[in-house]
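Appendix C. Worked example: Quinolinate synthase
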Amino acid sequence: WAVHAEEVAQIRRLKRERDAVILAHNYQTPEIFHGVADIVGDSLALAREAVATDAAVIVLAGVHFMAETAKILNPDRRVLIPDDMAGCSLADSITAADVAALRARHPGVPVVTYVNTSAEVKAASDICCTSGNALKVVESLGVSEVIMIPDGYLARNIAARTRVRIITWDGACEVHERFTPEDIRRMRAEHAGVTVVAHPECPPEVVAEADFAGSTAEMIDFVDRRRPPRVALITECSMSDNVAAGFPDISFVKPCNMCPHMKRITLPGIRRALETMSHEVTVPADIARDARRAVERMLSIR
Ligand code: 13P
Ligand code: SF4
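Step 2, the predicted output written as structure tokens:
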């Protein structure tokens, strides 16, 4: 990313001037991930870091629900997203009215909501979860049945690991739903001895073919602990590029499904965000209060 040196230098200067911190998701491009991010991580880490930072401004290099979560946790701080059209197919798959209808159909059953949702949907929920803590969150409630929204695949992957009965919604991540068991089998045939690490937003049939499944941070942690000679990360394109730089001895097979929403965030966009202090993320106070309860309840589970 040396070609981006000038833009990177400008962004670093602007960060100091604005007292800003850049939180970047693991799916951001390498020039953002390695060049300008102060903190990188999965959705859970970004939520925790949003609480921990004492910077005046948080720039969220990721999608809108991540910036909203940072704002919900920091009502008094300015949270910027470089492109406010950076959405998510999961967040778009469910509304607060859908949650109310689910509750009416399943009275008394708690609603566990993936953070990949709008603030309104979080506000209508009992507790949030991420792919990194979903099993713990479900089992923390001490109930025999939960409603888990909106990712139907994540819910089924968790259901396979717990005795808690899980009522699902049929949202899906447009990146992970495209992977198939045949993709994995072909990869194993073409790359002898490859270790396959999948994200739990993939269909259960794909996860069943993998050696390990976990959040993006857990995928990186698995590679770090096991140091397999050859690995395939079954997830968004930029993950392998970002992770490979830290493991020169590992050969990365690079299956590539791209998230168009994550890719709306660019270095010029981040520079503009810091220059113009936009797009500022806002959440109405009553929604933020209720959503914060669900997110903080999740964060209290270690
Ligand atoms: P995690 O990084 O929390 O695993 O989430 C993956 C994802 O798809 C975020 O959009
Ligand atoms: Fe949403 Fe999937 Fe893109 Fe993540 S990768 S932002 S879950 S569409």
